[in-house]
Amino acid sequence: MQYDLDETVLAAVMSGEPTVLVEGIDDIKFYGNVAHKIGRNINVQAIETVEGYSEGCDEIIRAIGDIQHSIQSDARLKKYILGIIDRDARYYRGELPNLECLFVLKYYSYESHLITTNTIKKQIEMLTKVTSSMIKDNVISYINEKFNEKLEKAYYISLEALKNACDTSYQACVAYSKKAGNIFSKSALEYIWGQVSYKKEELDEFANNYGVSRTDIKYLMKGKWWLYLWCEFIVNESKNLHFHCGNDFEICQMCKADKKEKCLWKVEGNFQIGQIKSFLCSIDAIDLNELDYLRQRLMLLAG
């Protein structure tokens, strides 16, 4: 049974448990885990489960817009209802609405927040047998530098998608609607980059006009693309970590004992992209330092 929006808000007030409306099914686990990690009882609900609404950012905006009068009439509601939307391309089109109880993410989407120093350490621990104390700053720097090498093409591909989202007359070869695998798999990337590379000068001009640079990639690259690229990268790059044992990285006790076949930096098991994605959205991987601004907003809710 579906409640309508007014019933959803009333149920939140009556139960004392705030409701956070999110764009779709992929968001429920992430925001639910964030709420649990900060110790708040929050009902995270996909907007499509509310009668009269379907999934997506526009539907969150419509729903929060539909109850603006109620929120302004009864200030208590501000503690019981919140809609969260991705920043996405709407920011660059100047279309972010200013509504009570609507919260906009800092980066393109929640996936853009998942890769941090803390989560990289946890992933290396999961993939290998090294201890946390062995994963020093130079290891993190190495990982980040190697990943950044992959982002040059991703930056221009994201610019192409952003220009497509901002200019309805633009004939683009990439749109944000494309799935990550259809862009960044080896064969697809070769084909798409062959088209986008010819537009680099034009895309640089577009970026300049919008005040965008390479350091803004997490603002303009679709979060699901970012996550796909990272997971593919870490699964592959982790297989090379043992080559650095005793050279760039701290030597492990097995290699020190001349048992290199048992190097602790070696990958343990055959990990897949899907496993890394699932881990990064888990409560164990969520980095509250990265998400402090979201934590602060959720703490304003009742409870």
Task: Explain what you see.
This protein is mostly helical and 303 residues long. Helices cover 47% and strands 5% of the residues. The chain is built from 15 helices and four strands. The chain has a four-stranded parallel sheet, sandwiched between helices. α2 links the parallel β1 and β2. The longest helix has 16 residues. The chain is globular and about 70 Å long. The mean pLDDT is 95.
Helix/strand layout:
Blueprint: H1 5-15, E1 19-22, H2 25-37, E2 43-46, H3 57-66, H4 68-73, E3 81-85, E4 102-104, H5 117-127, H6 137-149, H7 151-166, H8 181-184, H9 186-196, H10 200-209, H11 217-220, H12 223-237, H13 253-256, H14 273-280, H15 292-298
Parallel strand pairs: 1-2, 1-3, 3-4
Helix pairs in contact: 7-10, 12-14
Structural class, from helix and strand content? Answer: mainly alpha
Helix content: 40-55%
Number of helices: 15
Task: For the record, give the distance between the C-alpha atoms at the N and C termini, rounded to a whole number.
Answer: 26 Å
* H/E element order: HEHEHHEEHHHHHHHHHHH
Q: How is the main sheet built?
A: 4 strands, parallel
Per the principal axes of the C-alpha atoms, what is the gross shape? globular
Radius of gyration: 22 Å
Q: How many strands appear in the DSSP assignment?
A: 4
- Note the beta-strand portion: 5-15%
Q: Strand order across the biggest sheet?
A: 2-1-3-4
Parts with pLDDT < 50 across at least 5 consecutive residues? none
Overall pLDDT:
95
